[in-house]
């Protein structure tokens, strides 16, 4: 198998597994505040096992893409994904809960 095919196969597998992991890592929350100028959102949420948080809390998160802030408004129930980085926690995906 050529090197390029192996790389493509590994990338496809990573995307497939990443999608399954991302679904399991969704955190339920509620939008409390949006600061578009700073690119931040305040979320009240339940336990976030994917971030090592066992207790519910309210936190300010950065957003990976400022366009995410236009998808929700204060008071919305949401499902979101976040990751921890050098500068704190960052929301990588968010959508209104159904």
Q: What is the strand content?
A: 35-45%
Q: Which stretches are poorly predicted, pLDDT < 50 over at least 5 residues? A: 17-23
C-alpha geometry: globular
Helix/strand class: alpha+beta
Portion of residues in helices? 10-25%
Rg calculated over all Cα atoms: 16 Å
How would you sum up the major sheet? 5 strands, mixed, barrel
Spatially, the strands of the biggest sheet line up as: 1-2-3-5-4
Termini Cα gap = 45 Å
Mean pLDDT: 84
**How many H/I helices?**
1
Helix/strand order:
HEEEEE
How many strands in all?
5
Keywords: Signal
InterPro entries: CusF_Ec (IPR021647), CusF_sf (IPR042230)
Protein name: Copper-binding protein
Pfam families: CusF_Ec (PF11604)
Task: Describe what you observe in this structure.
About 7% of the residues have low confidence. Strand 4 and strand 5 form a beta hairpin. It is built from 1 helix and 5 strands, in the order H-E-E-E-E-E. Helices cover 22% and strands 41% of the residues. The longest helix has 22 residues. The protein is of the alpha+beta class. It has a 5-stranded mixed beta barrel. Keywords: Signal. InterPro entries: CusF_Ec, CusF_sf. This is Copper-binding protein. Pfam families: CusF_Ec.
Short description:
With 98 residues, the chain is an alpha+beta fold.
Q: What is the fold's blueprint, element by element?
A:
Layout: H1 3-24, E1 27-35, E2 40-45, E3 57-63, E4 77-85, E5 88-96
């Amino acid at each position: 198998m050529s090197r390029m095919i192996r790389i493509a196969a590994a990338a496809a597998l990573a995307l497939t597994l990443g999608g399954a992991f991302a679904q399991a890592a969704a955190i339920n929350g509620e939008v409390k505040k949006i600061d578009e100028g700073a690119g931040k959102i305040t979320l009240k949420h339940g336990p976030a096992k994917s971030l090592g948080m066992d207790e519910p809390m309210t936190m300010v998160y950065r957003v990976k893409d400022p366009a995410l802030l236009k998808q929700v408004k204060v008071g919305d129930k949401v499902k979101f994904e976040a990751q921890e980085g050098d500068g704190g926690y960052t929301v990588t995906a968010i959508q209104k809960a159904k």
